[in-house]
Design goal:
The protein has 217 residues and is α+β, with helices and mostly antiparallel strands. The model has no long low-confidence stretch (mean pLDDT 94). It is globular. It folds into two domains: 140 residues, Electron Transport, Fmn-binding Protein, Chain A (Pnp Oxidase, Chain A), CATH 2.30.110.10; 41 residues, no CATH class. This is Phosphohydrolase (MutT/nudix family protein). GO terms for molecular function: hydrolase activity.
Length: 217
């Protein structure tokens, strides 16, 4: 265990006035850039985005962020204030969908590989099993299991600083996957069920990869 520095209560920022006093004023353009609809630039960004993170909250306020990904432009724009996000086969925990039923407010962050800028969209969401909407967002001839219908309230482009600091798209900064165990090994470690036989562990790894290929859509 590493030694930790205590969090001293006298330095905790506890109200918005104190918060804003601690930082410089917002740049004028940053304050005015928020739109209430999808303009041509936002639409163009969405058409190129193969990945997003969606933030939701449960009924008791517990926060969650979940990734969603598909080929470029997988999020369908119905109109300037409505998006469709397909729901594909997963682990069926349904965290995001259950949260939307409890608290419809959602925050979306869209990424395009190679772009250091991101697109942020906030709004409210519903879950639809409408066969026409599910077919509209089909992939490999398989309709979505359901769609998240997002009513857009805020749209704004986010500057490049975070991705440039992280060097997210810089191949020379990419981490060798072999530095950590496989996903299935980590999960078995976490629940205390790690097989001792390396051959069994290899079979589990191979089964996970086969499952990815079989159930992607």
């Amino acid at each position: 265990m590493q030694a930790t520095t205590p969090v001293r209560p006298e330095f905790i920022i506890s109200d918005e006035s104190d918060l804003r006093d601690h930082f410089p004023p917002t740049h004028d353009l940053a304050a005015r850039k928020c739109l209430d609809h999808l303009d041509p630039h936002a639409r163009a960004f969405l058409a190129r985005a193969p990945f997003l993170c969606i933030g939701t909250q449960s009924a008791d306020g517990a926060a969650d962020v979940s990734p969603r990904g598909d080929p470029n432009g997988f999020v369908t724009v119905l109109d300037d204030r409505t998006l469709l996000i397909p729901d594909r086969p997963g682990n069926n925990r349904l965290d995001t969908l259950a949260n939307i039923l409890a608290q419809p407010a959602v925050g979306l962050l869209f990424l395009v590989p190679g772009y250091d800028e991101t697109l942020r969209i906030n709004g409210t969401a519903q879950i639809s099993r409408d066969p026409e909407l599910c077919a509209l967002t089909a992939m490999n001839d398989r309709p979505a299991l359901a769609v998240i219908v997002v009513r857009v309230q805020e749209v704004y482009l986010h500057c490049a600083k975070a991705l440039r600091r992280s060097r997210l798209w810089d191949a020379t900064a990419h981490v060798d996957r072999a530095e950590m165990p496989s996903l299935i090994r980590m999960l078995h470690d976490q629940v205390g069920e790690t097989p001792q036989d390396p051959k069994v562990m290899q079979q589990l790894d191979e089964a996970l990869e086969a499952g990815y290929k079989r159930s992607m859509y």
